[in-house]
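Troubleshooting: if your tokenizer reports a length mismatch, compare your output against this known-good record of 357 residues.
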Amino acid sequence: MSELVIETERLTKIYTNSYIALNGANMAVPYGSVYGLIGPNGSGKTTTIRLLLGLHTPSAGIAQVFGEVMTPNAVHLRQRIGYLPTNPQFPADMNPITYLEFVGKLFGIPSEMRKPRLAALLRAVGLSSAGSQKIKSLSTGMKTRLGIAASLMNDPDLLIWDEPTAGLDPEGRKYTIQLIHELGRSKTIFVSSHDLGDLEKVCDYIGILSDGKLIFNGPIDNMKQFRQTNVIELEVEGDVDAFCTQLDGIEWERAPGIVRLKLAAREDLGPILLNVMTQLTKSNVKLNGLKAAREEMVDAFIRLMNEERSHGFSQILESVSGNFAARFDEPDTLVGRAYLGTADGGPTADHAADGDG
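Known-good structure output:
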């Protein structure tokens, strides 16, 4: 069995030859991991998910799920997936019980399994007391929790959730993030969001999309390396002016009773702090407190996107002329195998732009 539950190579989607929604995305999602796809609205997250589900066909490139090429006809693959769309829509006159009963029947789950499973799921998402209410009367948060329960009805191996925290209040967001953390212990999860702050504590891997281009893909610990600054905050009293004049080669800023030292993230802090303590003593300054902080990963995420946009043209030229150029005659790549008709499930990549919506 492949170690990857999702693998894409140069996955591209162009709508009606006029809009590039996704441009050459290479992703790898290991079994048992939580993968967060992060990007602003309109960056291509939902398009990516629709391609992974086989709801749309790629214009170029290929997507494999569970080691097989995903296609619109791959029903057997989708039966192993639990999907939650953004702001899920439901039949207004159904209630949560009848809706989950309906979903269970679609998956062919026998009644003796379907009934206890839907009851357990409604209890797990806190909707037991609302089981008989019309769905149209439920709040946005309750509808999202019902969508989460529906995505779990088939006991899937893979969960694909598109913006599950969209439109939720802080309590609802916290609940959803905690649920992702808990489910991630037993399932592979692919989740999208426009807010890195929502997912950075629960994801093992992340991909960052900017204008349809995947500008980062890998372990979240690698993303942390893009944070550029350490901040050492000193709470001081005494001749602070004299102390600051001795901080040669260190960027600093003042606030009442505070001196903040800004250091590069990869600097060795030991010698720097030793020098700072020496200067404190020489300047007859009392240190009342010390606090260390790092640039927030959200800030690093925003900076990375801005850098990609400002250097986009040179990166595109490098991509086209370098190792990322598409070479469909390589049999050891997903695209190459599909093009040559040797990929599992047969060739499916549509190498011309198509117009599905």
